[in-house]
Specification:
Blueprint lengths: L12 H10 L5 E5 L1 E2 L2 E2 H11 L4 E6 L4 H9 L3 E4 L3 H8 L27 H5 L3
Parallel strand pairs: 1-4, 4-5
Antiparallel strand pairs: 2-3
Helix pairs in contact: 1-2
């Protein structure tokens, strides 16, 4: 089943802030971590301080543990930009958790061969 969403686009931090201040209530704000001299974490804090029911998803190009933790402290969800094409539909049209409890350090198990229970798998031989 296809998910649909109304989308407002902002090309910079100031436009995004204006949308948040004057626009309709938003269910989800998606922002890049890097916004010139500003960043998406600042938008997440603005939403949080306003007491809005808006969930914030901050995405980043590079794996950055410090920024990921700061995103979570701001009450936002953190995602890598290269994963958005796959993960974004899961954020639209469903209830989201109040905070991102995922560990940004957690190793992505889908990218490694874990092997099975057979002795051949455990030996690492090919």
């Amino acid at each position: 089943m296809a998910q649909h969403a109304h989308v407002d686009v902002a090309s910079n931090f100031f436009e995004a802030r204006e949308h948040l201040d004057t626009g309709p209530p938003y269910d989800l704000l998606i922002t890049n971590l890097r916004l010139g001299e500003y960043n998406g974490i600042q938008l997440a804090y603005m939403v949080r301080l306003a007491g809005a029911q808006t969930h914030v998803l901050v995405h980043a190009e590079a794996r950055d543990l410090a920024s990921a933790r700061e995103v979570q402290r701001a009450g936002a969800l953190y995602e890598r930009t290269d994963r958005l094409v796959v993960t974004l539909p899961a954020y639209v049209g469903v209830p989201l958790p109040p905070q991102d409890r995922r560990d940004p350090l957690q190793f992505d198990r889908r990218r490694s061969a874990r092997g099975g229970r057979r002795a051949w798998d455990r030996s690492g031989s090919a």
